[in-house]
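Methods — Computational structure assignment.
A single polypeptide chain was analysed. Its primary sequence is given first, followed by the predicted tertiary structure written as structure tokens.
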Amino acid sequence: MEGTGYMNYREQINKLLDKQDAKGLRKYGVSLEQNPAGILERLQHSVEEQADNLRYTLWAMDALEKQWWRFPKTKFAESNDLERQLDHVRSERVEMWTAFMTGKIGHLCEELFDVIHSCETALWLIKKQFPEIDMPSAMQAVERKNFNRGYYNVGTKGAEKCLRNESKGHLRQQLKDMVPK
């Protein structure tokens, strides 16, 4: 919900219920409690709402999956194989070190981003070849591993995110398993 700020969940739910009640009155001319529909029609409405909810949930999951990519997908994500792309990552690493050794920090930043972009292209290739790989969960596993290694300062947003995500990695797969294939 947009602009929820510090509003608690009960307030959010109550506002949403009020909004839905008004929408129902406009659409049907009576409140839900006053609707004379039979039991099968009521169940049909519920089934349709649940189907819509499932679609909205999957739609949001797709947006979350796309959200973590930092760069546009390159043409090499379609034409390279994984070995060729990993070799390209290696060549970008050499360019990064060359920029570092010459002391050109601006150029070094560009080359570091090139390394990241090339790694992302390798991840696109893996995603294409192995669609069962859940990239956000893989990223969370790295964050969790690095948290456990002590790489993050305790009490920072990054460390807190790792702690919150500890159990969330399974949610996505559980939701996917609910969808008929």
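Note: The radius of gyration is 24 Å.
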